[in-house]
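pls design
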C-alpha cells in the first residue's frame, strides 16, 4: 500500500478512543474497518474540536492520507485533513460490537441496527456468495433460470398451510413453491431452476422453520434418483468451495471452518426409523419425522445423507409412487449432518401419468378440477422428470453453525414475527 495515499472514505463511527493528545476513530465502512488517527497540534483546532463532538454511529466523511503503520491493528491508518458529519446519531440502543450481547427479541426490534454488527453482516455476505455460487453451478450444468408465479390459484403442496390473498374478486394464495410451474417448464427446456421466496402458513416454532423462506428450485427431465442425489451433493460442495474462496474474513470472524465433503451416505426410511428407535423415539412405520426426530437423526452423521424413498401417504401428490412397491414414493430428502444439521432439501421423481396424478390428488382430499391446467399438460408428450427444492436459510444455518434459522434471514418471518 503506497505511503501517504490520498483517500476519501465514508463510514459509521464504531468507537472513539482518546489518549492524551491523540484520538483514534475506528470507522466501520461498507467494506470493513479503517482506523483514523488524529493528533492534536498536527490538525486544525476545529478538526480536533469536531472529534470531541462525535458519537457512535455518526456517519462521517473523512478525507486524508492513508499510511502504513506497524502499531495500528489494521497495519494502516488514515491521517485526516478534513472530517465532515454527514448524518449524526443518538447513542444506539444495542451494542453493535457484541460486548454486551442483546437478547434476540431486542435484536429483532432493532434489526435495522443489528444487521450493522460485523458478525451479522458477515452472515449475509456469505449468503450472497451462496446465492451467486448456486446460480453459477446450475448455469454451468446447462440449466435455464426462470421465474414462476408467486400469486397462484391452487395449493401446490395441498393441506391448509396457505396464505390467502384477495385477488380482485377472487381468492388466491401465496405460492408454497414453484413446483407445478417448474414442472411445466421441463417439457420445453429440459433443465430449469429458480431462486425465489416460498410461503408456508405452518405454525411451527422450531429452529428450522420460517413462514417466508427462499428456495433453490431445480427440475430436470430424464433423471434417475442417483442423478438428483449427485447433483445436489455437487451443488452444495460447489457452494462451500466458493464460500471458502470468497469469504475468508467472514468465516474467521464467525469462527467457522468449512471444508467440502468427500462423499455422502444413503439410508433407507426403515434404517432412519431404527436409528430413532434406538435413541428412544416411539415412531411407527408410515410416520414422518418431526423437528425432534430430525435433529436426533442428523446428529448421527458427519457427512450429508439422503433418504431416497418415503411412505406414499406422507408425500405430496406429485411424487411418483414406486411401481414395484406401491407403499413407497420416490421422495428424496437431503439432510445436513451434525449438531447444526437440518433437512436441506426435499425432492424426487415426479408422476407424469395424468391418470395416476388424478388418483393421487383425490387421495389427498383435493379436487382434480382445481388442477385442470396442470393435469392437462401431461397429456401432451410429457417427459419423465424430477427435481428438488433446497432451502437457502437451512443450508446457511448448517454451514455457519447458526443456532436458529431466524439468523439466516435478514428480516425473518414466523408465526410470531411480522415486523420490522
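designed seq:
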Amino acid at each position: 500500500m503506497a505511503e501517504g495515499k490520498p483517500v476519501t472514505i465514508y463510514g459509521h463511527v464504531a468507537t472513539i478512543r482518546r489518549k492524551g493528545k491523540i484520538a483514534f476513530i475506528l470507522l466501520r465502512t461498507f467494506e470493513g474497518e479503517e482506523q483514523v488517527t488524529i493528533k492534536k497540534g498536527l490538525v486544525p483546532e476545529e478538526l480536533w474540536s469536531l472529534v470531541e463532538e462525535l458519537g457512535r454511529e455518526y456517519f462521517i466523511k473523512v478525507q486524508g492520507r492513508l499510511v502504513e503503520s506497524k502499531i495500528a491493528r489494521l497495519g494502516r491508518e488514515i491521517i485526516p485533513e478534513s472530517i465532515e458529519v454527514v448524518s449524526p446519531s443518538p447513542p444506539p440502543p444495542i451494542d453493535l460490537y457484541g460486548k454486551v450481547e442483546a437478547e434476540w427479541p431486542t435484536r429483532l426490534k432493532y434489526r435495522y441496527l443489528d444487521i450493522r454488527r460485523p458478525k451479522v453482516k458477515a452472515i449475509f455476505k456469505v449468503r450472497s456468495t451462496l446465492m451467486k455460487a448456486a446460480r453459477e453451478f446450475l448455469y454451468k450444468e446447462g440449466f435455464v433460470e426462470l421465474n414462476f408465479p408467486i400469486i397462484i390459484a391452487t395449493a401446490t403442496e395441498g393441506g391448509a398451510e396457505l396464505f390467502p390473498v384477495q385477488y380482485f374478486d377472487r381468492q388466491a394464495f401465496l405460492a408454497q413453491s414453484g413446483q407445478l410451474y417448474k414442472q411445466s417448464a421441463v417439457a420445453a427446456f429440459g433443465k430449469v431452476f429458480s431462486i425465489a421466496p416460498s410461503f408456508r402458513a405452518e405454525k411451527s416454532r422450531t429452529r428450522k422453520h420460517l413462514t417466508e423462506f427462499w428456495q433453490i428450485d431445480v427440475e430436470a427431465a430424464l433423471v434417475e434418483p442417483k442423478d438428483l442425489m449427485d447433483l445436489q451433493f455437487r451443488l452444495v460442495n460447489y457452494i462451500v468451495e466458493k464460500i471458502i474462496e470468497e469469504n475468508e474474513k467472514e468465516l474467521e470472524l464467525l469462527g467457522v471452518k468449512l471444508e467440502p465433503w468427500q462423499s455422502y451416505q444413503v439410508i433407507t426410511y426403515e434404517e432412519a426409523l431404527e436409528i430413532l428407535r434406538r435413541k428412544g423415539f416411539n415412531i411407527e412405520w408410515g410416520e414422518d419425522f418431526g423437528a425432534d426426530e430430525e435433529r436426533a437423526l442428523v446428529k448421527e452423521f458427519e457427512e450429508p445423507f439422503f433418504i431416497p424413498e418415503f411412505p406414499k401417504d406422507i408425500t405430496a401428490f406429485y411424487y411418483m409412487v414406486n411401481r414395484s412397491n406401491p407403499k413407497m414414493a420416490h421422495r428424496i430428502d437431503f439432510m445436513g449432518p451434525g449438531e447444526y444439521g437440518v433437512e436441506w432439501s426435499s425432492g424426487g421423481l415426479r408422476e407424469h401419468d395424468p391418470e395416476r396424478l388424478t388418483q393421487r390428488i383425490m387421495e389427498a382430499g383435493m379436487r382434480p378440477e382445481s388442477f385442470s391446467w396442470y393435469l392437462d399438460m401431461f397429456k401432451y408428450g410429457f417427459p419423465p422428470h424430477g427435481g428438488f427444492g433446497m432451502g437457502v436459510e437451512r443450508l446457511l444455518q448448517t454451514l455457519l453453525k447458526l443456532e436458529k434459522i431466524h439468523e439466516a434471514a435478514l428480516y425473518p418471518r414466523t408465526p410470531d414475527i411480522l415486523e420490522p
